[in-house]
Amino acid sequence: MLTRNCLLLFLWILVNEGSVFSLHQPSSPLGRSRSGRERGRSSVGSLRNGAAGFQRVKRGWVWNQFFVLEEYMGSDPQYVGKLHTDLDKGDSSVKYTLSGEGAGSIFTIDQTTGDIHALRSLDREEKPYYTLRAQAVDIDTNIPLEPESEFVIKVQDINDNEPKFLEGPYTASVPEMSPVGTYVTQVTATDADDPTYGNSARVVYSILHGQPYFSVDPKTGVIKTALPNMDREVKEEYQVLIQAKDMGGQLGGLAGTTIVNITLSDVNDNPPRFSKSFFHLRVPESSAVGSAVGRIKAHDLDIGRNAEVEYIIVPGDGGAMFDITTNEHNQEGIIILKRPLDYESKKAYTFKVEATNAHLDPRFQSFGAFKDTATVKINVLDVDEPPVFNKPSYVMDVYEDTPAGTIIGAVTAQDLDASGSPVRYSIDWKSDLDSYFDIDPVEGTISTNELLDRENIAQHNISVVATKLSDPVLTSRVAVTVHVLDINEFPPELASPYETFVCENSKVGQVIQVFSAKDQDLPSAGQQFSFRTSKEDIKNKNFTIRDFGNNTAGVVTKRSGFRRRLQEIYLLPVVIEDNGYPPKSSTGTLTIRVCGCELDGSLLTCSAEAIFLPVGLSTGALIAILLCIIILLVIVVLYVGLRRQKKKETLMSSKEDIRDNVIHYDDEGGGEEDTHAFDMGTLRNPKVVKENLFRRDIKPEMQRGPRPPASQDSSDIRDFINQRLKEHDTDNSAPPYDSLATYAYEGDGSVAESLSSIESLVVDFEEDYDYLSDWGPRFKTLAGIFGEQSEIHSDSTNTENTH
C-alpha cells in the first residue's frame, strides 16, 4: 500500500510541476510566472475571496491549487506543496504564514521555506477540499510583503468505498407464465467515491445466484425474466443474489451484494378438477326442503380469485329435485333439496354436476376447456313418517246461530309408509280454548259445540292434529280456518245525512243528488243494495228515485218551476233493500231544499229571506249598498260632533285650588274705578261660602285663639298695600290685561267676607275624620293621624269640662 501511494505521489509531482516555484527576479514577476499564475487562477478563482471571478493583483509570488491523497498511511507528514515569493532572497528575511480551514491542526507550513505538509490522513468522503489563506511578511517587523491570498487543497480520491444497496433486500413479484424479458424490478447501488475521478464510482451489476430464471442489466440494474412459462404451481418463490462492483467490474474493484426475493403471482392457468368422476350420496326422505343433502368439491391448483369455482346441475333426472351452490370459503359444492322426497314414490336420483372457473383468462383458453364434470347418485332412505294431510290447510264456512252439533267440514290424513297405519284426529286445545268445535277422532269431521256469533268472533283459527296409531310420537298438524257467516241481522240505511237542494231553474229529468247506503252486516265487500220510491209516495209529482245498479242511486226531478215562495222544503222517502238472506229493508228520508242558483247550476242562496230582495241584485251589489249607508252615517255623526264642539266655551277651571286659577273674560274693563263694566261680587258668591269651612288636604294644627281683625287705618297695612301697588305698577312682566291682586285683607263691608288665608289657621277640631277610613288602604295612615288628633282633642275637652 505504501509503495502504491509513493508511486502515485511521484506521478502527481510530475504532472503538477508548478506546485514548487523557484526564485524569480522581482523586476518582472508577472512575466516569468504568467503560466503558473493563470493556472492558479483557473483552478482556485471560484474559491478566492468568495467571488465567481477575481481581479488580477500584482504580486511577486503565486501558486496553483494543491492536491493531497486521501488515506495516506506514511509515517512522515505528507508533503503537499511549496509557497515562494519573488521577494524572498534566500536570506531568511521572509516569513510565510498559513490560516484557514485546518491550518495548524491538519496542515502546517515551514515559515522559512514555505513547504506545506499534511499532519494526518484525510478522507475525501468526509471533506473533499480545504480553503486556506497564505501571506508573506517581514520576519523582523511582521509587516506584510504581499497581500493575503486564498488557495484550495483538494483531497484526491482513491477507491476505498465499495458499492452499497441502500434499499436492500428487495421484494418483487411477476405473474407466472410470463414471457422472457418481462420486467420484475430494479436495484440501485451507490458508491461514495468520487464519480468524476477515475472508475472508483463506476458500478456494474451481475447475478451471482438466480440463473437461468432471471437476468440483470449490468448498467441499470433492471431485473427481467430469463426463462419462459415459469409455473407458480411448480415453484412459487425465487431468491436472486445481485452483485454491484466498482472500477467498471475490473479486477481489483470493490463489490457489494443484495438479495432480491421474487414471487410468482398466480394466473388462472389451471381448470377445476373433481377428485373422482362419481359421487354416491344417501338422503333420508324426511329431509326438509332447503336443507343440504351432500357436498362435492372440484380442486383448482390456482389460488384466490382464480380458484373460485361455480357448480351447476346438468338438466336431467334430478335437476328438478336438487340445486347446488358454492361455499365461498372452501369452494365446495353444496347440494340442496328443492322438493320433498318420498321413498314410496322414488328411491334414487342420478344427475351430473359441472364445475367451471368463475373468472377465465382468455390467454389460456387454448390449453383446453376450463371445466370438469362428475356424476352424482342420491339414494332416498325410507323413514317412518308422520301422517300427511291431503291439503296444506282447510277453510270452512258456517252461519252464525247454527245449532250445536252441526258438521261444518272434515279433514283427511293418511300414513304413506308401507305399513299404512290408521290415523286418529284431535283438536289442539291451545287453538280452541273455549271449545267452540269438536272433531270425530276416526272420520275427521268437525262440528260445532255451541252457537257462534259473528259479531263476537268472525273467524276461528284452530289446529287439527293427526297421530299415527302405530307410533303416537309421529304427529302432523294442519291449520283449519272457520269463517262465521252473517245471517243478515241489520237492515241497510243511508250512508250519511245528505244535504240535498234543487234549483229554482232546474229542468225535468235532472239528477240533483247521488246517494248510497251502508249495512252493519259483514262482509261489506259482497253487499248489494237496491233503491226505490216507497209505495205511499209512488204518485209523487216532484221527484223520483233512479237506481244505478252499483249500490248508488239518484234523485231525479219530475217537473220544473220550483219556487221558494210557494214551498221551500220537500221530503222524499227512499226504500233501501239488501241482498242478504233473508233480505232486509228500511226507509230513509231525503230532505230537499229549494235554492236559488246561477244559470250554470251553481248555488247562490237557500235562505228564505232572500226571496224578498229586489230581483236582479246580486250579493256584491247588496254589500256595496250597505257600505255606502254605513259611510253616510259616519259622516253625519262626525259633522254633529264638530258642531257641538264649536259651541263649547273655552273656559279653563280647576276644582282643586281657586288661588291658582286665571280666568279670561275676553273683555276690557274701564279701569280700577269702573264698577259698572264688571261686578266684583261674582268673585264673592255667598252661596259657595260656608261657615267654618276648612281644608282637608293638610293636617290641622292646634286651635288658636281668634285673631282680631286688622284695623283699616293701621299704618303698617297701609304701607304694605302701597308697596305692593308700586311693585305691580313698575313690573314689566305683568300681563297686558287687568288683573286682580289679593292682599289677604278684606274690608268690613265685603259680601263674601274674608277670602284670605290669614285666618285659615282657625280650625274647628270638632270635625269628624272617621270618613277617611272608608277611602281605602291608601288613606289608612292619614286616617290614623287625624283619628289620633281627634282623640287627644276630645280628651282635653273632657278634662276642661271636668275642671
From TrEMBL:
SMART domains: CA. It is a single-pass type I membrane protein. Keywords: Calcium, Cell adhesion, Cell junction, Cell membrane, Glycoprotein, Membrane, Metal-binding, Repeat, Signal, Transmembrane, Transmembrane helix. The keyword Ubl conjugation does not apply. It holds the Pfam family Cadherin. GO terms for molecular function: beta-catenin binding; cadherin binding; calcium ion binding. Residues 85-165, 166-274, 275-389, 390-494, 494-612 form the Cadherin domain. Gene3D superfamilies: Cadherins, TCF3-CBD (Catenin binding domain). GO terms for cellular component: adherens junction; catenin complex. Residues 25-47 are annotated as: Disordered. The chain crosses the membrane at residues 611-642. GO terms for biological process: adherens junction organization; calcium-dependent cell-cell adhesion via plasma membrane cell adhesion molecules; cell migration; cell morphogenesis; cell-cell adhesion mediated by cadherin; cell-cell junction assembly; homophilic cell adhesion via plasma membrane adhesion molecules; morphogenesis of an epithelium. It comes from the Eukaryota. Its main location: other. It is found in: Cell junction, Adherens junction; Cell membrane. CDD domains: Cadherin_repeat. Residues 1-22 form the signal peptide. Cadherins are calcium-dependent cell adhesion proteins. This is Cadherin-12. The lineage of its organism: Eukaryota, Metazoa, Chordata, Craniata, Vertebrata.
